[in-house]
Amino acid sequence: MAKYQFAKRVEGIQPSAIKELLALGADPEVISFGGGYPDPDLFPLDKLSGVYQEVILEEGKQALQYSTTEGLPALREKIIKRMAHIGIECTMDEVMMISGGQQGLDLVSKLFINEGDAIICESPTFLGALLSFKPYGPKFVSVPLEADGISIDHLEAALKENPNTKFIYTIPEFQNPTGVTMSLEKRKALLSLASQHNVLILEDSPYRELRYEGDVLPSIKSLDTEGRVIHLGSFSKILCPGLRLGWVVAPAEVIGKISMLKLASDTQNSTLNMHAVNRFMDKYDIDSHIEVLKQTYKRKKDLMVENMRTSFPDAVQYTNPEGGLFSWITFPERVDTVKLMRETLAEAKVAYVPGLSFFPTKVENNHCRINYSYMPDEKIEFGIQAIGRIVQNYFK
Ligand SMILES: Cc1ncc(COP(=O)(O)O)c(C=O)c1O
Predict the structure, then answer these.
(1) Ligand 1 center to residue 311 CA distance, Å?
(2) Residue 330 β-bridge partners
(3) In the predicted model, is pLDDT for residue 174 greater than 80?
(4) CB 124 near ligand 1, within 6 Å
(5) In this predicted structure, which of 102-111, 313-322, 339-348, 370-379 has the lowest mean pLDDT?
């Protein structure tokens, strides 16, 4: 049998919790609060079916052909308008389509990370980002996340201690996994520190448009006057993740290089999907679609939080996010959420993501991430009450 000599960069890469959980989510029996799945009942199936048919019949010869690596110009123009609406001024050579925000994380890593470079991450942070950064051999530096975003004091110390920092990775709105949003003061302080230490900021913003409470805050990119912020957006949570369509906004020099790396990786996004989404946005008002998503997710979030309030012991804390798809539960330190999930699965077929996967460096075992967008109302109630019942036993 062949003995594989894998490249050094994949040493230590383990099967991820995300992969296992995506598999779990596919079991219809399991009440899965695990994945970051949008509610599939909200996918605009009829409208998409119509636009795909029109695209193939009316412009199939272009829509099924190769196109440019940067993506369909008409769709990029629409992104430019949407970005302008949130204060990000960009031109055609400063925006390109990518296969979801996830590809942006990989391509930005490939472009910037040399082995040993420090990458500063919120702790906890998005597991998928850690998976993207890791093969490029960075030194992960964790900065604690507080109720209003990254700790600025710790960030300052981390930047001083790590002069070889390449970028700070942040999810400013309804962070994955915690649901936390960064305050305006902290956005400004973060930008100012990044400028002082001459590091980049990677702003990952797939949930921004899913705000259903509180005040809209400027994106970090919109406050940037130095070309220091790379901004990632995605259609995954506002339309459908299966389209694999996202975008990156960055200075033209950076986009030029990302485009070369994307060419090497997958040539381009699906021409057909780009045409379909472009036509969808021409024919329908995507913002009214997003309104419906927001109403549904707010209802589900309120239902989940209310059930946590009535079912969980007082010693258990949870975030009450203003948008996005996740809440973060913190149990007393003696509760190990991996063990707890074995019980919730065995007794009630309830799954979540144990929090340990989201820590870039020092792991904490007493948290979990709970998604409220995917499950129907009755399963949210049943699942949260089941977790509450099981965890009550820990307090007897
Ligand atoms: C913070 C964050 N970034 C990026 C992604 C990747 O999303 P996609 O590649 O579907 O755009 C996700 C997905 O859940 C996410 O939560």
Answers:
(1) 30
(2) 317, 367
(3) yes
(4) no
(5) 339-348
Question: Where in the chain are the domains?
Answer: 15-44+288-395, 68-267
Neighbours of 359 (CB within 10 A): 20
What mean pLDDT comes out for the span 146-163?
98
- Report the separation in Å between the CA atom of 176 and the middle of ligand 1, taken as the mean of its atom positions: 9
**Do residues 208 and 81 lie in contact, with contact meaning Cβ atoms separated by under 8 Å?**
no
Report the atom number in ligand 1 closest to the C-alpha of 246: 11
CB 199 within 8 A of CB 160: no
Looking at domain 68-267, does it have CATH number 2.60.120.260? Answer: no
Rounded to an integer, what is the distance from CA 277 to the centroid of its chain?
20
What CATH architecture is 15-44+288-395? Alpha-Beta Complex (3.90)
The CA-CA-CA angle for residues 19, 249, 327, to 5°, reads 40
- Six-digit token pair at 92? 């055609």
DSSP string, 331-366: --TT--HHHHHHHHHHHH-EE-EEGGGG-SSS--SS
Report CA-CA distances (Å) from 278 to 58, 60, 95, 103, 285: 14, 14, 15, 20, 11
H or E segment and range at residue 184: helix 184-196
pLDDT in tens, 212-265: 999 999 999 999 999 999 999 999 999 999 999 999 999 999 999 999 999 999
